[in-house]
Specification:
Blueprint: H1 2-12, H2 16-49, H3 55-64, H4 70-81, H5 96-133, H6 137-147, H7 149-164, H8 168-174, H9 184-194, H10 197-232
Length: about 230
């Protein structure tokens, strides 16, 4: 109980180092979620609409990549950004940018697959209308994404939650450097191994609170989507 009360006091005192770690965690995860969503949402909707050779294989691969081991992604990005790698001259390894790249790769298949699952059932309702109006493909994608906006929002929130909880990939490409690439998950792992349970517990409480808030938001958005579909029918 002493450790818990000390951890709570550390949070309430607005410790500078603690909040710097929290801020970097949110910055990296939100940026990665934005980048992944900008690619995955239209791609997921397009895969629901378009028919071409290899489409089914792409869907299978994207679904399989949802369970991609984070350390494997971290290793791949490390090899890409290392000095001997093709992008080594950019000097991005062990920077927040490298962490954003790794997290984006991890959550992209999650957002893509969930978006595809949300959009595909709606295509049956719109297919005849799109054909009758000869609607361009890009307008079909925009229309379906908008109609499935609540489910798509859930997909984005799920991706953000996955990014925020990530530890393996960000350690590999970020290096867990104090004041530069140390985020909540990597700091918890490090401080626990050092026996500094107060900081680890404080960050754990913050991480759990954020995760709980994200899950509440997911349920609220999903419920709003269910109500919208009921009214629409």
């Amino acid at each position: 109980m002493d450790i818990l009360s000390t951890a709570v006091s550390l949070i309430l005192s607005a410790d500078r180092d603690l909040f710097a770690i929290i801020a970097l965690s949110l910055q990296v995860s939100l940026t990665a979620t934005l980048i992944a969503s900008l690619v995955a949402i239209p791609a997921g909707a397009a895969l629901a609409i378009l028919r071409f050779p290899g489409r089914r294989l792409l869907l299978v691969v994207s679904t399989a990549f949802m369970a991609l081991p984070p350390v494997v992604v971290g290793l791949a990005v490390y090899l890409l950004l290392s000095r001997s790698g093709p992008l080594g001259t950019l000097g991005l390894l062990f920077t927040p940018t490298a962490m954003v790249v790794a997290q984006s790769i991890l959550i992209l298949p999650i957002v893509l697959s969930l978006t595809h699952q949300a959009v595909e059932p709606l295509l049956r309702d719109y297919d005849r209308l799109f054909t009758a109006l000869d609607t361009p493909r890009h307008l079909q994608v925009r229309t379906l994404i908008w109609d499935a906006r609540f489910a798509v929002a859930v997909a984005v929130l799920a991706g953000f939650g996955r990014a925020l909880a990530e530890v393996g990939a960000v350690i590999v490409v970020g290096g867990n450097i104090n004041g530069l690439t140390r985020v909540m998950t990597t700091t918890i792992a490090l401080e626990t191994s050092k026996g500094n349970l107060t900081l680890a517990l404080a960050l754990g409480l913050v991480l759990i609170t954020i995760a709980f808030a994200v899950n509440l938001l997911i349920h609220a958005v999903a419920r709003r989507g269910e109500i919208y579909q009921m009214v629409r029918k």
